[in-house]
């Protein structure tokens, strides 16, 4: 075989689906290919083709457009164009947007390879969405032994029928039932309806310590407002829910029927990440120094979770739960030092913490919402409170916001009426500053809000966004600013020189575009969700986004963000500082192919959003 054929074989061997061919078939393939050159702005495939062919891009770029001239995809080095080998080829047209070199394989040869090699054929039988779902499985792989909480479902932990009694049962009888069955909690049922629950702690604190006669009905000490989970919830997610709510028992309910109860003891049997229990240490911390020591272990948590097979969603939930707990504890320590607040307040978090999508590399975004009776005489207290918490978070590893979007900034420490005015101005006059702040303030979540100040602010904000098409159009245009690096295998779209040579920013070019898309869908439909996955699914439920579009974006987000988390974990494991600059060399050919699928999908969804809201008029 001459040198040119060897070079073609080596090129194909490193790219899916040709990497699925046995060596003998791969060695024969270059002789069956025709090398074609297509000039820029020429129709593609070449008009003089004598038979339908599969085209493999060796160099250059091809754009795919539908009958409405909408861009639906872009192909670059290593991509395949099989339009002429498919029945739906008339639905699309393609153009070379750069001088392009391709290898052409007759469709009949392609079919022969598909018939003989199942792994090769599978690539052509899957849609981009299916390939992304498969890619998630590849990235997650099989978790190492001892990582049960990452994979086990809650239903597998339920090994007995629910232990329950009625609300009129005496406290003494209820305690006897718990002792007889050796359980630390008891469900209180009214027929098939779950009315409440009592635990050992309730017996101690609400009965014995309170001097309540044990002959009183159990309904007087039961907890009525219960959080529950579904049986298919992962053990890891159940653990996060417990730590977030600071509870030790969760009822398991399926379609309104009580299946049983899962406890922290049950989860301990499957415990995989001891660092998740940092939340318990945080609740008991008596000083900032202790919290700083706990914060120093958060990068270790990210490494451990990624190594254990956790996805980006699970890592983000875990780290955000810990950040929430640290923030709450700092607020408690601040109040202990400064005294009770003079007026009610709400501590709001924004950005990735609000979306529960943090990594150990995240900075802090937060603000203070004060009751309207707050006056100038109260600002000294809240300024000191904000400084205490912001400084504490910084010391714990969540650095100060580079844009100073923190409660220590007087601008973001205001009464409810001022916050109403802020949002009204941003929505009615969506100037560049408002759009810049959107990623923080339109993702706000209340973290400490005993007076319920946040809900009326959020509801009024959502009413305004849903009704203002011009604002949504500006938001849509803003969401198109960060584009995925289509064809990033080519040096032209990689960073050149400096500390990040030959890399691309996987956060701003990968995850941020999906976060921005989800935000626009949520605000246009008046949805209260802040988490990106929850926003996309809620948008599909209300019809603001197709179900397929939502599912594909969820998969793309999880795949890209998981690669980002894995990249950061690798840096932390090697003693380096985590960042978002990923080199294509870190990825396998299969991962690069799946990542390109994700980028193509994002680009398509961005184009669709821009046309839907006429975003081009507002750029």
Automatic annotation (TrEMBL):
PROSITE patterns: CBS, CNMP_BINDING_3. InterPro entries: CBS_dom, CBS_dom_sf, cNMP-bd_dom, cNMP-bd_dom_sf, Diverse_CBS-Domain, DUF294_put_nucleoTrafse_sb-bd, GlnD_Uridyltrans_N, RmlC-like_jellyroll. Residues 157-214, 222-278 form the CBS domain. Keywords: CBS domain. Pfam families: CBS (PF00571), DUF294 (PF03445), DUF294_C (PF10335). This is Cyclic nucleotide-binding protein. Transmembrane segments: none annotated. Residues 17-79 form the Cyclic nucleotide-binding domain.
